[in-house]
Design brief:
The complex is a heterodimer of chains A (about 525) and B (about 100).
Chain A lengths: L17 H19 L2 H28 L12 E4 L4 E4 H21 L22 H8 L7 H14 L6 H19 L6 H33 L4 H10 L5 H18 L7 H8 L2 H26 L4 H24 L4 H22 L12 H23 L2 E3 L2 E2 L9 H4 L1 H15 L5 H15 L3 H27 L8 E2 L4 H19 L2 H10 L5
Antiparallel strand pairs in A: 1-2, 3-4, 3-5
Chain B lengths: L2 H21 L3 H26 L3 H31 L13
Helix pairs in contact in B: 1-2, 2-3
Classes of the chains: A mainly alpha (about 525), B mainly alpha (about 100).
Chain lengths: ~525, ~100
Amino acid sequence: MILLAEFESPKVEYATISPLLIVVGAAILGVLVEAFVPRAWRYPVQVGVAALGLLIALADTVRVGLALDTLDAGLLARGSLAVENSMVVDGPTVFLWGTLLVMSLISVLLFAERRLEGGLTSFAGQAAALPGTDAEREASTRGIEHTEVFPLLLFAVTGMLLFPASNDLLLMFVALEVLSLPLYLLCGLARRRRLLSQEAAMKYFLLGAFSSAFFLYGVALIYGFAGSFELADIDAAVSASSGANAYLLGGIGLMAVGLLFKVGAAPFHAWTPDVYQGAPTAVTAFMAACTKIAAFGALMRVFYVAFGGASWDWRPLMWVVAILTMVVGSVIAITQTDVKRMLAYSSIAHAGFVLVGFAGVYAGTGDVVGVTSVSSVLFYLAAYGFSTIGAFAIITLVRDAGGETTALSRWAGLGREAPVLAGTFAFFLLAFAGIPLTSGFIGKWAVFAAAWAGGAWPLVVVAVVMSAVAAFFYVRVIVAMFFSDPVDIKPAVAVPSILTTGVITVTALATVALGVVPGPVLDLAQQAGAFVR
Amino acid sequence: MNTEHYLTLSALLFTIGATGVLVRRNAIVVFMSVELMLNATNLAFVSFSRAHGQLDGQVAAFFVMVVAAAEVVVGLAIIVAIFRSRRSASVDDASLLKY
């Protein structure tokens, strides 16, 4: 029998994990605002709470980053375990936290845009009201909106911050669900085309729950193999085991299914186009940037730290997945006639390019700080995140009477109608294609260099060929915008408020800056160093 | 009875659940199959916990139950919303988004 005196309270390093606590605190505050603040005041208060919470968390992340302990003299690994070894705050964690918080702050501005729908947000006024009924019309004439989207976004960000920082597989599963559940709901909350939006939410939910179950069974098998949930213990067990162990291999495979689903890699990509197309565009932008960052962070941590010793067992699998993902994403994107759906396939192709860097498993030479798999992937995710949010922000502006027009045919002649907007969109597409002087080029160069140094040259060859294929469909959109005549009705470009304009400006500037002077951010990614175990 | 039997049962339940997700048409039944997969995992956690002589796996089972409960709330909300607007919870009917 355990006496109360014997019970030791767990030691929690509040100062180290405070960015996470600030975001979850802001989310809970948002729920209270929903309950106690009068309806007329909710929108400004919610936006303020969300933006301020994320901003403070970002400043706090900088503080945590500067205070990291150096474990190794050569900046190879910095940071420490926290909360009874269940979390780890190290260089990559802090870099991912910073990137995630910047991206989600930008997404909050997109969520808060109200001018495009005539004074209301682009989320359903009353999600419970049936589409096309009087109740729905009444909600919109009375100006009712769901300001719950802001706390939901903050809860999703909490899960995203926790996901790559967990040093414990059980915590990682909980983080996976905390990031997914709010996203399922957000996907179903579009104001226009609600049937599409609800369908996207259902597909995302059923497939997401299915893949989490696979992830969880993988965790169970790994627990059976190692007798612990901690990554360092699993690593020790992997190193100590000789020969193939069915639990270990089964666990690696099943966990890979769950993680690769979240990054949208083929053959687990089927949800991506449907969900990206059906979800409200602001949510798509948030998901496309932030979920990828969090999921790749977790993927790298699990496979490099826990399964690093078995890397010869999982590397062939990752090679196949990377090649398949690049080919599926690039080739199917060519046939798309919807801009949002095309960007979804483009995001699948980009997941493939990031997987190339990941599957290279290049840890650097040790003495010189250079491009490693970890630092190249971190940089790529930051570069891709900015351009993708910018591109989706532009999609929210091309509209007709029924809301956004995403059919590619309706975008014809946009270059003459709105040269600046079309030019910016073309610039984002060129960044996706990886043209020099954009962030996409530096990102691609970094992941390919890391993969090449790691001996994965066949992957790099496929990746270069697929980049050329991908460039084709990006250029096709540019040709449609600038060199073809509008079919019947001219596309209309809505004038947004400062929020969306600001988002587009910031993301475009970041895309230029990361392409022309990548040094600072690339340095930051390299300084992040290796994972602490 | 040794641990292997329980693990075999858990793998069997997991497979039945996974098959259910793939072949059933009603979203509620698909979702129930996912829950079956999660509970199969709980059985695996508890058996491994017993085999290792630790409590970690049993604690994990509690966490999974709580997460599954949260998932039910969100999942049923989405399925009920789609049922009310379409008068159908069939996953085959929800086919506006394709190709």
